[in-house]
Amino acid sequence: QVQLVESGGGLVQAGGSLRLSCAASGIIFRPSAMGWYRQAPGKQRELVASVTDGATTNYADSVKGRFTISSDNAKNTVYLQMNSLKPEDTAVYYCNTKRFVIPPYDYWGQGTQVTVSS
User: Fold this and answer.
1) What is the three-class DSSP state of 61?
2) Burial state string for 54-81 with b = 16 or more CB within 10 A and e = fewer than 16
3) What is the mean pLDDT of residues 27-41?
4) Among candidates 60, 115, 55, 107, which has minimal Cα distance to 85?
5) Contact residues for 107 (Cβ-Cβ < 8 A; gap 6+)
6) pLDDT tens column, 84-97
7) Which of 6, 57, 73, 80 has the most crowded CB, counting CB atoms within 10 A?
């Protein structure tokens, strides 16, 4: 059974930093991409950052220059270093891993709350 376990969320003041971690267990076939999404109250879930094939990164415009995604492919773990946090970064952050080729899959973590106070 595949399980994604997130950690590292919490409460931080504006301008501070947090590092999120997500460890995927039960993965048999290597993922095509791992990433982080977030959902703020009353808003749709949005992509924050992703890494494809362990190398190509993609960021939402709102976090470019502040957040850095990295991965450890051997451990099926993905990290999100968040610096210069802003109150608008407050959301539940979800880890995701997906595979585009056969056999495809798309798994989500339970989410971790990030709250940035002004």
Assistant:
1) helix
2) beeeebeeebeeebebebeeeebbbbbe
3) 94
4) 115
5) 2, 4, 24, 96, 97, 98
6) 999 999 999 999 99
7) 80
Q: For residue 43, give the amino acid letter.
A: K
Helix residue spans in the chain (DSSP H): none
Would you say how long the chain is, in residues?
A: 118
Q: What is the pLDDT of residues 48-65, one digit of tens each?
A: 999 998 889 999 999 999
Yes or no: say if 110 and 7 are a contact pair by the CB < 8 Å rule. Answer: no
Antiparallel, parallel or unpaired: β 91-99 and 105-108: antiparallel
- Measured CA to CA, the distance from residue 90 to residue 73 in angstroms comes to 28
Q: Kindly write down the DSSP assignment for every residue of 31-49, as one continuous string.
A: PSEEEEEEE-TTS--EEEE
